[in-house]
Amino acid sequence: MKDSSRRGFMGKAFGGFAAVGAVASLYAMKKSWDPLPSVKAAGFTTLDMSAYKENELVVEKWRGKPIFVLKKTAKMVSSQTPVQAERDVMIDGSHYMIAIGLCTHLGCIPAYKPSTEDFLCACHGGQFDFSGAVTKVPPPRGLDIPPFKIDGNKLVLGEVGPEYQAMKDTGITL
Amino acid sequence: MANFTKATSIKDWLNQRLAIEKVEKVMMSEYWIPKNINFLWAMGMVLVMTFVLLLVSGIFLLMYYQPNVATAFDSVNYTIMREVDFGWLWRHVHGVAASVVFLIIYIHMFTGIYYGSYKKGREMIWISGMLLFVTFSAEAFSGYMLPWGQMSYWAGMVITNLFSGGSLHADFLVEWIRGDYVPAQAFLTRFFMLHVLLLPLAIMGLIGLHFAALRIPHVNNQDGDEIDFDVESKKYLAGDKAGSKVIRFANDFMSKDMMVVGVYLVFFFYLVFYNYGFAMDPVNFDPADGLKTPAHIYPEWYFLWSYEILRPFSVDVGLIAFGFAQVIFIGLPFLDRSPNTVPASRRGLFKYWFWAMLVDMIVLTAMGKLPPEGIFSTIGFVAAIAFILLWIALPIITKFEKKI
Ligand code: FES
């Protein structure tokens, strides 16, 4: 009797000990699967904004993702609805559309047509206007705007500046 | 310690130490198979054969494949295809088998559904089989990544994005799965690990479970007869081979299985040598480019039906419908409320249910491949709704089925 309760105790003690070990190793496994520090550190890109031409989409690369940069023409700017205007990034007096070039549906790259000034995502037929707002589903929202900081006529992607923070707070981007 | 006597033969020596005669009886000579089953029951053996082909060809590919974003594409398309002697053979065997294995799995599954082989007593056979199907799907997907072509990259992008859970925006989860912001080196290496080690291990374990689940309830038969295996096997062993309803697995039944496997292998190697192209998407012969999406993204044919269920809806509804389609088959033994274990043709409305489900899945597959425009997206939408409705209807129609 005494013997078996001692065994019971040892069983429980071992169970507890093993549980701690299991949790610890799960934690280690989770962390090992995380992105590496070198991957995270490479997450900044600086763009020189003086080089872009109006109504010409340039695709930059940040964190391996395509970044759309579109300098808006005067006509686009004047015709903008408030919803479209909110998404503007102003640098050195010019209006830009800056967005992660991955469809918010399932991540295909929409194509830009300069003639109609909009984007078409061929995967499931989603459409976006020249400011990156969605005009035809399935995409659930406009193109996401990457975190940016304005630095003179340079744009640093990956750093959060006040303009980006404001967009995030008002829910214009995620 | 057991009593060891001087061995009279190698077999006897082993038998004293490993009980091989007992194992032989359990596994082969006294493993009983009903007589009234048709060639559709041989699909299990065909699958075993295909799995072996996948394993062997995979091992040969593994020796030259390089899981590195810079070299993966060339290691497959140049080294294996051109430099390695017979490298093309392993690749084509592997590619064709990966595609054909799903055809056989679907036949195997629908045979089970048709004859009610998932019913009372056989639930674990069905559940372990469906778990195998899910693991095979993961295995196929992780393998599809490895050549690091355009379709690999973008399939990886799209499928991992599903894990953000639509409006939940669990992007951290997606980045965690990828180990990067987009599919890149970490992604390729970990999917390589999954494909060559973890998932095959899981598959082998599940195959063991699937076979074990068969041992006690025994395999079903064409008429859904309840056979008393103890009585019938005694009859057989007593010499009444013609009167018994069962036969030995080996070598009697095996000979029939092997006949089907033989026919299958002719078909299989015909594909490998003359028609391997269907298993290789042309888009995947462009190296992966994170800045350019192919015009149409579609999965391999065996995933088209569930992909089409995802497609016609808005993100969240689509994800829910997709999730539903992935898991619902597991619940089949519990959703079918009728006690009848007979072929669908002898049951009530279930007969129509079976054929409606089969046709619906074929329609979904066809629509999944076509571009999502106009009439095709309408048909796809209707078929997706029909799929869901059929599953909702199943418990109701089977409940009212008369006991046969
Ligand atoms: S990924 Fe763009 S519409 Fe689906």
Automatic annotation (TrEMBL), chain B:
It is found in: Membrane. The keyword Metal-binding applies. GO terms for molecular function: electron transfer activity; metal ion binding; oxidoreductase activity. The chain crosses the membrane at residues 37-65, 96-117, 124-146, 191-214, 258-277, 309-332, 352-368, 374-397. Residues 10-223 form the Cytochrome b/b6 N-terminal region profile domain. Residues 239-404 form the Cytochrome b/b6 C-terminal region profile domain. The keyword GTP-binding does not apply. It is a multi-pass membrane protein. GO terms for cellular component: membrane. Keywords: Electron transport, Heme, Iron, Membrane, Metal-binding, Respiratory chain, Transmembrane, Transmembrane helix, Transport. One of its GO terms (biological process) is respiratory electron transport chain. This is Cytochrome bc complex cytochrome b subunit.
